Amino acid sequence: MPDLLTVTDLVKHYPSGRGRTVHAVDGVSLSIGPGEVLGLVGESGSGKSTVGKCILRLTEPTSGRIVFDGTDVTHLSRRGMRPLRRDVHIVFQDPYSSLNPRFSIGQIVAEPLRQHGIASGRAATEKVCEMLERVGLRAQMRHRYPHELSGGQRQRVGLARALVCEPKLVVADEPVSALDVSVQASVLNLLTDLQRDMGFSCLFITHDLSVVEFLADRIAVMYLGTVVESGPREQIFTDPQHPYTKALLSAAPVPDPAAQRGRRRVVLSGDVPSPLTPPSGCRFHTRCPVAVDRCATVVPSLTPVRAPDHPVACHLVTEDSVPTLAQ
Amino acid sequence: MADVLTTPAPAAVAVAGRSDRWRRMWRRFYRKPMSLTGLILVVLFLLLALLGPALFGDPTAVHFDDVLGAPSGAHLLGTDDLGRDQLARIASGARVSLEAGVLSTALAMVVGIPIGLVAGFYRRYLDSVVMRAVDVVLSFPFLVFAVGLAAILGPSLRNVVFALGVSQIPAIVRITRGEVLSVREQDFVAGAIADGANDATILFRYVLPNAANALIVQATVAIPAAIIGEATLSFLGLGVQPPTPSWGVMLTTAQQFLSQAPWLAVWPGVMIAVTTLGFNLLGDGLRDVIDPRSAR
Amino acid sequence: MTQQRSAAGRRAGTPLLSVEDLHVSFGTEDGLVQAVKGVSLTLAPGEILALCGESGSGKSVTAMSVPRLLPPTARVSGAVRLDGRDLVQLNASELRALRGSDVSVVFQEPMTSLNPSFTVGFQITEVLHRHEKLSRRAARARAVELLELVGIPDPAGRLKEYPHQLSGGMRQRVMIAIAVACEPRILIADEPTTALDVTIQAGVLDVFRSLRDRLGTAIVLITHDLGVVADIADRVAVMYAGRIVEQAEVTELFARPLHPYTRGLLGALPSAARLDGTQRRRLREIPGMVPAPYSDPDECPFAPRCPIAADDCTASRPSLDRQGDGDGHLAACFHPGLSTVEAVDA
């Protein structure tokens, strides 16, 4: 089956005063198949959220190509974009700013239906009630206002709103990061249930590796505007190849004292460089514990080296060796 | 999907909806004596302005047999140099103040809000142009600008309303724009864009309702400013013309007889002070109550 | 190694800090919020105690009661003893003397905790000058030492920089340097790494570890992240609805969680996902919500959400009792250790 979404060489630069440029996204390529969950992982400043915004055309890509469901949407006009918006929706991180405080929950969930002329009046109310129940809320909840709901309930409303048009793709931008652990668990279970039942594809953007390990089919790891490695979930976790992926995996503490204290951790030196002046060559070379001279000058390309579905952008990964990071 | 869990609602909000929200707001308002005082003063002012002229007789009826009369049973607040009843004139003056305050603020809002919305929403060049113009106007003190405008237009209540309204536009533009800038950064606006909503939908369904609180509070600042403005213009002879009573006109008259009939100056002055105080207290109270940050 | 050291420290003698039956409440317009409802705990010299729990559990309020960094509406009762002195009884000026010298705090937001208008060096030396009465030159030398201690490269150069020139991780290190400038005996760290990226977090946690090892500072770490707890804590107190529901040595707690809430939290972590009967990966959920903080019925506060709740759980409230013969494993549960897995799956 052809991919639902393909992003090729996406670049997004923002002007940033005094003639400087923020290189938020610099040549990202990724694809999502029908019904697939792609986890886009990265730390702050990696550009992961910007990729999501470009796909939704909430911001104008500088260059590259975004093809959604067979249509090139890279520079489509707002009018041209409108019919496609029925098929792609977004769930935000902040359950407080993502719902219009002036609307009742019912209005909030019905808004996409109204916008796309899918249903109105009674039919819309019915659909809204059905959707609210699907996300684990009572239908009566539609008469309430966002400020009366807890963070977890709001996030469910956000999901209901994103899914009410039965989209083909959902972009979820850190949807559980603001929630407490126990609430996060129920929202994650809900999301996986809905994803399997409704069959939508999902771009799940997060900084939390354990979350993508739980629900992603494939994972792409971003660092400073570029994808450094991508592949099936198990491969990323069992056979990480890029030094950054390894460092990221080793830095996330596991909730098991014996295991956590016995681990060999890679502590990266220094800070993430500014996206105003990204390093030359491999963007990770300034912090990479195994960088060689070539890393500072030659940009590594994201190519499959050891497995066809597991491309990595590192000069040191070869067919028969992967760099090992010593403490 | 038979096993969906139904999250129980917390008891505190289970009862309900909108009325609960209003009750909470009222309780928060009611608890502050200052806000309540403001509300009472404003209500009294409105009653006086709306019912007063009917209750207290003709403010222009001249009685030469009783000029500059001290307060008495027949004329509770005394009479002026033409023997006109001061109470009737205060009441009619309240009506004039109300008209000037409300109409000029309405004018400022009707013109200022759309400009602010558009400037804040589209930013870019339009925003720069509008905001520079606003800065230029705001660099004049509000009253100086209004006085200049009124002097050009000539004295009449309609021109006073126009002059005051136009002078208030920049402040309204600036506040609207500020609200738009903050509201448009909220995720729910991005969500609406992702739905394919057009600009009009976003502006009027999402941005404007969320900017409304700040604008309501601003109205409680603009109205008393306009009341003072009207009194000032009328005092200077640029506003309402005699014999129509206005607190400003009354003060002009009182000024000439300050030694013979000091009570003439007291009541218009007190009314102006108390009315503006009332609006300002009310505004402060409203600001506390409907601030979206505390409404969570 | 650190493990042994702290365990030895604790057995060796009297606790550095002891909190006894602490209650904290706040008057709000919706009524009296009881944030902390009778918390008792101790902290040994050089120990790292993690207070963990979800938002609203009272973990921050408990810890901030020590230097009494609480809103003015807070009402505090109970005792907080440091060297036999009851901190609850201190007046404002005594508290000021206490803060920074005996007890220091590191907050979550490194951006807003530093004053943007002054250099890093000025902000560190100011503290040294105020509390330690050091000369300008001595304070500067000490500031360089402190920045070195918290792992900031080129410390002398950094002294001249302003907070906005530093990254989040570096700012948090500066905050820690300021907090430990006067060698406090207790450092309270409120979600110190929550705003940081994981690759930065690891380094900051190392800083805490080395502070404890080199200066013997006791640390109260407030966190919701059980991974961080597993990494650094010696002992853990799990809080729920204003009370400690379970407390144990860190390895003991993770190996044998006894309270159903602790078990629920551990099971809810994405890394604990298991396959269910339909071969789907599922997380264990904790149904329901935290009780409203306005009332305090005489029952186990977790009973309404507890998979193993029985009649006795709603008849009275379990106290935090010693469980088994373990080294100080406490749990407030009538049925500690009863397997919740079967109960949930049933």
TrEMBL record, chain A:
Q: Which Gene3D superfamilies match?
A: P-loop containing nucleotide triphosphate hydrolases
Tell me if Nucleotide-binding is a UniProt keyword of this record: yes
The record, for InterPro entries, names: AAA+_ATPase (IPR003593), ABC_transp_ATP-bind (IPR050319), ABC_transporter-like_ATP-bd (IPR003439), ABC_transporter-like_CS (IPR017871), Oligopep_ABC_C (IPR013563), P-loop_NTPase (IPR027417)
- Write out the GO MF terms: ATP binding; ATP hydrolysis activity
Q: Where is the ABC transporter domain?
A: 5-249
- Could you give a single Gene Ontology term from the biological process aspect? transmembrane transport
**The protein's name in its UniProt record:** ABC transporter ATP-binding protein
Automatic annotation (TrEMBL), chain B:
> Where does this one sit in the cell?
Cell membrane
Report TM segments.
Answer: 33-56, 102-122, 134-153, 260-283
Does the record's keyword annotation contain Cell membrane?
Answer: yes
InterPro entries the record matches: BP-dependent_transpt_permease (IPR050366), MetI-like (IPR000515), MetI-like_sf (IPR035906), OppC_N (IPR025966)
* Every ABC transmembrane type-1 domain range: 94-283
| Biological processes annotated in GO | transmembrane transport
Record membrane topology: Multi-pass membrane protein
Provide one Gene Ontology cellular component: plasma membrane
Keywords, alphabetical: Cell membrane, Membrane, Transmembrane, Transmembrane helix, Transport
Could you tell me which CDD domains the record lists for this protein?
TM_PBP2 (cd06261)
Primary location group: membrane
Pfam families assigned to the protein according to its UniProt record, in alphabetical order: BPD_transp_1, OppC_N
Family of the protein in this entry: Belongs to the binding-protein-dependent transport system permease family.
The protein's name in its UniProt record: Peptide ABC transporter permease
Organism placement in taxonomy: Bacteria, Bacillati, Actinomycetota, Actinomycetes, Micromonosporales
Encoding gene per record: dppC_2
Automatic annotation (TrEMBL), chain C:
Chief location category = membrane
The entry's cellular-component GO terms read: plasma membrane
**Which keywords belong to this entry?**
ATP-binding, Cell membrane, Membrane, Nucleotide-binding, Transport
Its placement in the membrane is given as:
Peripheral membrane protein
Pfam short name (any one): oligo_HPY
Give me any GO biological process, just one: peptide transport
Task: Give the similarity note.
Answer: Belongs to the ABC transporter superfamily.
The lineage, from the top, is: Bacteria, Bacillati, Actinomycetota, Actinomycetes, Micromonosporales
Taxonomy, superkingdom = Bacteria
Annotated localization? Cell membrane
**What is the protein name for this chain?**
ABC transporter ATP-binding protein
Q: Name one GO molecular function term.
A: ATP binding
